C-alpha cells in the first residue's frame, strides 16, 4: 500500500501520522509538501495530519484548504482514493468542501487534551472496519476548534446515510449530535478530531486508534 | 540635525536606563569618551542583572557544573549532556515573571517561545516542555485572571509549536500576590557530534538574520526584568513582546534543516536585549568583532532608529554566522519555509561592535566591557537564621479524615487537571507518562530508552531555611526522577528571588545556592544551565525565595519504569526511609492551622542517595512498578495520591510510637511509598536491608476508602474534593 502525508507549514502531527502508517504498511509514506501540485503516482491513501497549519490564522484549516496540493488531493478523492484528515486535517477537509459542516471553537472556549471514549457508529467504512467487533474505543483529543457543526438537514442526512462514523460518549466540545468523525457520501474521505496516531504504538501500550490504521491497510 | 538617539548620553539618562551612577562612571572610563544614546542603551541592557548576572555570578560559581556526561555546562544557550547512543539532551529553564504579571497571555507564551529557541539554537529538536508556576493567594483579585492568561499563553504557544507540555507544578501563596513566577523549561535532543554554539569565529563571515521582522516591541525588556515593580507596572505593558508560535515552528524546522549541513559557524537566538545581546555574545565568544548594517535589518515599522533596532525584543528572530559563500544555501531553505532573512553584516577581527546606519558608523564599542568585563558585585548579605525544629507535641492533632481532606483539596495539592488538560501532552507520540506522575517520561524517538523530567522546589522550606530548602529542592527533584526508575543526570535551575541589594535577600540567594550546590555534589547531579531572576518585588515586598530545579534523568529501558497508578487490591504498602515526624513548615501546619513556622525537614543527602539507589534498583530489576515519592503532606497524602490514581482504597496501620499527625503528615525527606503484591514484599525488605535503609509495611490496598485505624475518608469524596477545587475556583468568573 502506498501512502502520503501532506506537510503544511505548521503541521505538527505529520511525523506521528507517518510513523503509524509505516508501522501498519511496512513502508514509510511519502511526505508531500503543501506547495507541490502533484501526489506521487499510485498513492492509495492521503493523510492530512494534525497541527496548526498556517497558525490557524484566519480560521483553522482555511488557508491550507487553498494550498496548491489540495487540487491534487481533491482529484485523488474524486477518483475514489482514500483521504484521512485528523484534527487540523479534518478542519482542512471541511474548509475545502471535501466534507460537509464546520469545526467551531469548543463549547468550553478552551483547548482540551484528554483521552475520550468514542462509540463506533459505523464500522462499515474503509477507515473503521477493524472495529467491527467492538462498540467503543478510547482515543485522545487535542484541539480548541473541534465543535462539529452543520445544519439540521445535513445532520439528519449524515445520520441517515451512516456517514457519522465516530461519536463522543462524553461530548467534550459541544459537537452537534456528539459527532467526532464523519465520512463523505462515497465513503472514501474521512475526517476525525481524535488523534488515532497517538494510540497506535504497542510499546506505549495504548492502541485505541490502531484499528483505524489496520482498517486502512485492509482496505487497500 | 543629529538624531536624538545619536546625541551624547547623560548620567540622568543612564540612571533612567537602570544603571547606577557608579556604573555610568565605569562606562565613561572604559570608553574614554561619552557614549551616544544608542551606545548607552547597549551598555545598559548588557549590564542589566538579566544579561550580566552581576549580583549572582560570584555565587553561581559554587555549583558543580561538570561530570562524565556533561558536554556543555552553563554559559551556552542551554546545557548539554551525553545520553549515549550518539545523542545529547539539551535543556534549560528560564523565567518570564514580570512580563507575565503585566500581560499574562503574551508574557507566558513568549516565555515558552524563548526557552524553545535556547534549545533548538543548539541543534536540538525540542521534545518536551514543562513549567513551574507560582500565583498569589486565590482570593487576591488578580489571581484568577493571571492563572487564566498564563495557562492559555503556555498552551497557546506550546500546542501550536507541537512540542508536548508534559508536566510542571503550580503553587499559590500570598507572597506572590504582586509578582507571579512563570518559569518554563524546554528539553531537546541533538546528535552529540553536531551541537551548535554561539561563538562567531573568524573574520569576514556573513551575519545572517532570519525570522520575524524587527518592530518597536519589548524595548528595554531586559531592564524591566531587572527592576522592582511598583503599582504602575501595568503602564509597562508596551514593553511586553507578542509571540507568534507559527513563526517559531517554521524557524525550528528551517534551522534544523540548515543544521543538517555544515554551513553554520555560530548561531544564537535573539532573546532578552535582542540583537544587542545576540551580536555581542556571538562576537565576544568567538573572539571576533562584528559590523552590522542597520539598514539591512528587516523592519516591521518605518523610521526606526539604530537604538530601537538594537534594543527591540521582537520575538522569533535568530542570528547566525555562516561560512562565506553559503548564503544561497541558507536562503533556499528560509524561502521554502516562508521566512524573512537578510545578510545584515559580517564578522571582523577588531573585537568591537560597530553599527553602520545610512553610511555612517553610529556605534563603535569594544566588546570586552560589554560582556566579560561587565560589572560583577559581591553584594553584602546577611546570613539567614533558620528557625528551631518543631516537636510533634508542639503541633495540635486534627481528626484524620478532616486533615486529609483539607490538605488534598488545598490550592497547592488540589488536582491541576484543569490546567494540564489545556496543554497538548501527547504530540510527537513519545509521551509515556505525563503530568500525573512524579516525573514525566518521554521516550527517545525510535528507541526503547527514555528521558524522565521533573520540576521542583518547595518555596515554604526555602523561606524558612534557604540552605536546607535549597538542598531539598535538588533532593526532591532527584527523588522524583528516581521514583519513576530513572537515573538522574543533571539539572537546570531558575533562581527567583527579590532585590539582591537588600542584605537579607542576598543572604537567601547565597544560602540557597550553597544548599543546592551541596546537594548537587552529593547526588552527582551537576548544574548545566540556568537563569537568575532577581528583583521579584512589588512595593518592597519580596516573593518567597523560589529556586526552581528542572532535572533530567535517563531510563535505559522504558518498560522498566514505575508509576503511582497501578496499585491493586491486596497490595502491601511499604514505606522506604525513616520517619521522625517533621512537621515544621509542613502543609499540615499551614492548611490545618494557618501556621508557617518551624524548621523544614532536614535533608540527609547521603541517606537520600542510599535510599533512592535502593528504590531505583528495584524498579530496574522489574521487582516493583508502583512507587510514589513522599513530599508535601507526607505518608497520608502519598497514599491518597496512589489510591486516587489507581482507583483502589488504602488502609494505613496506626503507628506504635509517633503521634498520628506526625506519622501521617510529617514531611521527612528521603522516603518512598511502594505498593507490591504480598509475595513480592520480601525482595523489597531484603534490598533495603542490604543497603542499610529502613523499609516497613505501613498498610494494605483495598476497599474504597482511605482509612487510618478506625477513621476513614471515602475515596469518591476525596476525589471530588481533590479534583473539584481548581475548576470551581476558575469557574468563579475571570
Secondary-structure topology with pairs:
The complex is a heterodimer of chains A (220) and B (734).
Chain A: E1 3-7, H1 14-25, E2 30-33, E3 45-48, H2 69-78, E4 82-86, H3 88-95, E5 102-104, E6 112-120, E7 136-143, E8 147-149, H4 152-160, E9 164-168, E10 179-183, E11 189-192, H5 210-219
Parallel strand pairs in A: 1-2, 1-3, 3-4, 4-11
Antiparallel strand pairs in A: 5-8, 6-7, 6-9, 9-10, 10-11
Helix pairs in contact in A: 1-5
Chain B: H1 11-16, H2 21-31, H3 37-46, H4 49-52, H5 57-60, E1 70-72, E2 79-84, E3 87-95, H6 97-102, H7 104-120, E4 125-135, H8 143-161, E5 165-172, E6 181-191, E7 206-211, H9 221-224, H10 245-258, E8 264-269, H11 274-285, E9 289-293, H12 306-311, E10 317-322, H13 327-336, E11 341-348, E12 352-357, E13 360-366, H14 367-370, H15 400-408, H16 417-420, E14 431-433, E15 440-443, E16 450-456, H17 459-464, H18 466-483, E17 487-496, H19 503-522, E18 527-533, E19 537-538, E20 541-542, E21 546-555, E22 572-576, H20 587-593, H21 605-620, E23 626-629, H22 634-646, E24 650-652, H23 660-665, E25 672-676, H24 681-691, E26 695-701, E27 705-708, E28 711-714, H25 715-730
Amino acid at each position: 500500500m502506498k501512502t502520503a502525508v501532506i506537510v503544511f507549514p505548521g503541521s505538527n502531527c505529520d511525523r506521528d501520522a507517518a510513523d503509524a502508517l509505516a508501522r501498519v504498511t511496512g513502508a514509510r509514506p511519502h511526505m508531500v509538501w503543501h506547495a507541490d501540485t502533484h501526489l506521487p503516482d499510485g498513492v492509495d491513501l492521503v493523510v492530512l495530519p494534525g497541527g496548526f497549519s498556517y497558525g490557524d490564522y484566519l480560521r483553522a484549516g482555511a488557508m491550507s484548504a487553498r494550498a496548491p496540493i489540495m487540487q491534487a488531493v481533491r482529484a485523488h478523492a474524486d477518483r475514489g482514493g482514500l483521504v484521512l484528515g485528523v484534527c487540523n486535517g479534518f478542519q482542512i477537509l471541511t474548509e475545502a468542501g471535501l466534507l460537509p459542516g464546520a469545526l467551531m471553537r469548543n463549547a468550553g472556549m478552551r483547548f482540551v487534551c484528554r483521552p475520550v471514549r468514542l462509540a463506533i457508529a459505523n464500522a462499515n467504512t474503509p477507515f473503521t472496519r477493524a472495529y467491527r467487533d467492538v462498540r467503543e474505543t478510547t482515543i485522545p483529543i487535542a484541539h480548541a476548534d473541534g465543535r462539529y457543526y452543520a445544519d439540521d438537514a445535513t445532520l439528519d442526512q449524515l445520520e441517515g446515510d451512516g456517514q457519522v462514523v465516530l461519536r463522543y460518549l462524553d461530548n467534550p466540545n459541544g459537537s452537534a449530535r456528539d459527532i467526532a468523525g464523519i465520512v463523505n457520501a462515497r465513503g472514501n474521505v474521512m475526517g476525525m478530531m481524535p488523534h488515532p496516531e497517538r494510540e497506535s504504538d504497542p510499546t506505549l501500550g495504548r492502541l485505541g486508534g490502531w484499528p483505524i490504521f489496520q482498517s486502512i491497510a485492509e482496505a487497500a | 540635525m543629529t538624531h536624538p538617539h545619536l546625541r551624547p548620553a547623560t548620567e540622568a539618562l543612564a540612571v533612567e536606563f537602570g544603571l547606577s551612577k557608579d556604573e555610568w562612571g565605569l562606562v565613561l572610563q572604559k570608553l574614554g569618551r561619552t557614549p551616544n544614546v544608542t551606545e548607552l542603551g547597549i551598555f545598559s541592557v548588557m549590564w542589566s542583572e538579566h544579561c550580566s548576572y552581576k549580583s549572582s555570578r560570584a555565587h553561581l560559581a559554587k555549583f558543580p557544573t561538570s561530570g562524565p556526561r556533561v558536554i556543555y555546562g552553563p554559559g551556552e544557550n542551554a546545557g548539554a549532556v551525553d545520553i549515549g547512543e550518539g545523542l545529547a539532551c539539551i535543556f534549560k529553564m528560564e523565567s518570564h515573571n514580570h512580563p507575565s504579571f503585566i500581560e499574562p497571555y503574551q508574557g507566558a507564551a513568549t516565555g515558552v517561545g524563548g526557552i524553545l529557541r535556547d534549545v533548538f539554537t543548539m541543534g536540538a529538536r525540542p521534545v518536551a516542555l514543562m513549567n513551574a508556576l507560582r500565583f498569589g493567594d486565590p482570593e487576591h483579585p488578580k489571581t484568577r485572571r493571571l492563572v487564566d492568561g498564563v495557562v492559555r499563553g503556555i498552551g497557546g504557544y506550546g500546542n501550536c509549536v507541537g512540542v508536548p507540555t508534559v508536566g510542571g507544578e503550580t503553587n499559590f501563596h500570598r507572597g506572590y500576590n504582586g509578582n507571579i513566577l512563570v518559569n518554563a523549561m524546554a528539553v531537546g535532543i541533538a546528535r552529540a557530534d553536531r551541537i551548535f554554539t554561539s561563538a562567531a569565529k573568524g573574520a569576514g563571515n556573513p551575519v545572517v538574520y532570519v525570522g520575524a521582522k524587527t518592530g518597536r516591541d519589548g524595548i528595554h525588556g531586559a531592564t524591566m526584568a531587572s527592576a522592582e515593580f511598583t503599582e504602575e507596572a501595568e503602564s509597562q505593558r508596551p514593553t511586553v513582546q507578542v509571540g507568534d508560535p507559527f513563526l517559531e515552528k517554521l524557524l525550528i524546522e528551517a534551522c534544523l534543516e540548515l543544521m543538517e549541513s555544515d554551513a553554520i559557524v555560530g548561531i544564537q537566538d535573539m532573546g532578552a536585549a535582542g540583537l544587542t545581546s545576540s551580536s555581542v555574545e556571538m562576537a565576544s565568544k568567538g573572539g571576533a568583532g562584528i559590523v552590522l548594517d542597520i539598514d539591512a535589518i528587516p523592519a516591521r515599522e518605518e523610521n526606526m532608529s539604530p537604538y530601537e533596532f538594537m534594543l527591540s525584543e521582537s520575538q522569533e528572530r535568530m542570528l547566525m554566522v555562516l561560512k562565506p559563500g553559503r548564503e544561497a544555501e541558507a536562503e533556499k531553505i528560509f524561502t521554502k519555509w516562508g521566512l524573512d532573512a537578510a545578510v545584515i553584516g559580517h564578522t571582523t577581527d577588531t573585537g568591537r561592535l560597530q553599527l553602520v546606519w545610512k553610511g555612517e558608523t553610529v556605534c563603535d564599542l569594544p566588546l570586552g566591557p560589554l560582556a566579560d568585563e561587565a560589572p560583577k558585585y559581591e553584594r553584602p548579605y546577611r546570613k539567614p537564621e533558620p528557625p528551631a525544629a518543631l516537636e510533634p507535641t508542639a503541633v495540635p492533632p486534627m481528626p484524620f479524615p478532616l486533615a486529609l481532606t483539607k490538605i488534598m483539596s488545598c490550592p497547592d495539592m488540589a488536582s491541576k487537571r484543569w490546567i494540564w488538560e489545556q496543554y497538548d501532552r501527547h504530540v510527537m507520540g513519545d509521551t509515556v507518562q505525563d503530568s500525573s506522575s512524579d516525573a514525566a517520561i518521554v521516550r527517545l524517538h525510535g528507541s526503547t530508552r527514555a528521558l524522565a523530567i521533573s520540576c521542583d522546589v518547595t518555596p515554604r522550606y526555602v523561606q524558612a531555611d534557604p540552605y536546607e530548602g535549597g538542598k531539598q529542592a535538588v533532593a526532591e527533584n532527584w527523588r522524583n526522577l528516581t521514583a519513576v526508575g530513572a537515573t538522574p543526570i543533571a539539572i537546570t535551575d531558575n533562581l527567583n528571588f527579590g532585590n539582591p541589594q537588600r542584605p537579607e535577600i542576598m543572604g537567601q540567594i547565597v544560602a540557597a545556592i550553597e544548599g543546592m550546590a551541596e546537594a548537587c555534589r552529593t547526588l552527582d547531579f551537576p548544574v548545566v544551565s540556568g537563569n537568575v531572576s532577581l528583583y521579584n518585588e512589588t512595593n518592597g515586598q519580596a516573593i518567597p525565595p523560589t529556586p526552581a530545579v528542572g532535572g533530567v534523568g535517563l531510563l535505559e529501558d522504558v518498560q522498566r519504569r514505575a508509576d503511582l497508578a497501578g496499585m491493586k487490591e491486596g497490595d502491601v504498602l511499604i514505606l522506604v526511609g525513616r520517619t521522625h515526624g517533621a512537621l515544621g513548615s509542613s502543609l499540615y501546619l499551614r492548611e490545618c492551622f494557618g501556621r508557617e513556622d518551624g524548621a523544614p525537614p532536614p535533608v540527609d543527602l547521603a541517606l537520600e542517595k542510599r535510599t533512592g539507589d535502593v528504590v531505583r534498583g528495584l524498579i530496574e530489576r522489574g521487582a516493583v512498578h508502583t512507587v510514589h515519592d513522599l513530599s508535601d503532606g507526607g505518608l497520608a497524602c502519598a497514599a491518597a495520591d496512589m489510591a486516587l490514581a489507581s482507583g483502589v482504597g488504602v488502609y494505613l496501620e496506626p503507628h506504635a510510637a509517633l503521634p498520628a499527625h506526625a506519622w501521617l503528615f510529617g514531611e521527612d525527606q528521603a522516603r518512598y511509598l511502594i505498593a507490591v503484591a504480598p509475595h513480592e514484599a520480601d525482595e523489597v525488605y531484603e534490598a533495603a536491608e542490604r543497603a542499610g535503609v529502613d523499609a516497613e509495611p505501613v498498610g494494605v490496598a483495598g476497599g474504597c476508602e482511605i482509612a487510618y485505624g478506625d477513621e476513614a475518608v471515602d475515596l469518591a469524596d476525596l476525589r471530588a474534593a481533590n479534583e473539584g477545587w481548581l475548576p470551581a475556583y476558575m469557574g468563579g468568573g475571570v
